[in-house]
Amino acid sequence: MKKVSIKDVAREAGVSVTAVSHILNDNKQRFSQGTIKKVLDAKEKLGYIPNKNAQQLRGSKTKMIGVLLPSLTNPFFSTIIQSMDEHKPDNVEIIFLTTINKGLEENIKHLVEHGVDGLVIGRLIDEPENLNAYLTKHKIPYVVLDQSEDNGFTDIIRTNEHEGGKSAAKHLIDYGHTNLAIIQPYELMANMKNRIDGFEQYCGVHNIPNPKKINTELSKLGGKNAVNQLISQEVTGIFAINDEIAIGAIRALIDNNFAVPDDISIIGYDDIDFAQYMNPALTTIAQPIDEIGKVALHQILKKVEGLSSKTEKIELPTQLIVRETTQSLK
Ligand code: RIB
């Protein structure tokens, strides 16, 4: 995608490149109000972003990609980062940022003003229409993944969440569990809603209409805190919305003298790197985390290089990994 250049602004305003450069660099003394206005209007109309950083020093062949994720402490997201970093070609630089909810737009503007060529966004976007309009105006392609919604504006990379939730329910029910609970975050992203729909639908078809739902923080501490609300309810099978919640819940179960899996089975979601090393090792639904990073990078580079203008929805598979935190009641 070709970015708007200073030459385009000069042409639109009907003045020289030097005049545009002076005016945009606050060297306005020798220009009339009329000329200044023409330049500022042309800049606004074309969505020109002056390069505040050393894009020229990078050389025009080096591409800079900004990646925005909700957290770096959760291995799910740091593994995506690792994967992108490992798979990036030599002429690509990546800037990784995590954002709290309100910071997303400012972070994106900051990256755009510093000459980023494309963006990968892996968290909820509050105002997708506005963001799409802003990035389109500035000719910055972007792709979204995981917690971002599919608004149809650009490529989305997701896993088969519905199938993943269904596989978790099937595993617990195949093992004879009928008294089930879901530990989920207060704020459910679209991908997690699909995950839970898949779980609940499978339960419904197998005569377990209403698994209990415990809402908590999306963290290990959240999992730990959720357990208080569960232990009086004779639950034998828990579906944790992610592995971190499962890890926190297992800690609290053990602290409350429940054996996992002898008293309670628990299945997580993600298959983060810790899952296989825990004791007991965590049964979970694996997302192909490395592949998510690789595919997202591939898609954004295609767009930055102008090789793809169509909008793609890419769905990667999930997989049940049976380890030691679930046990058959039969
Ligand atoms: O662990 C982080 C969770 O949030 C994952 O399940 C991922 O899919 C994201 O939505």
Automatic annotation (TrEMBL):
It holds the Pfam family LacI. The keyword Glycoprotein does not apply. The keyword Repressor applies. GO terms for molecular function: DNA-binding transcription factor activity; transcription cis-regulatory region binding. InterPro entries: Cro/C1-type_HTH, HTH_LacI, LacI/GalR-like_sensor, Lambda_DNA-bd_dom_sf, Peripla_BP_I. Residues 2-49 form the HTH cro/C1-type domain. PROSITE patterns: HTH_CROC1, HTH_LACI_1, HTH_LACI_2. This is LacI family DNA-binding transcriptional regulator. Residues 4-59 form the HTH lacI-type domain. It comes from Staphylococcus lloydii. Keywords: DNA-binding, Repressor, Transcription, Transcription regulation.
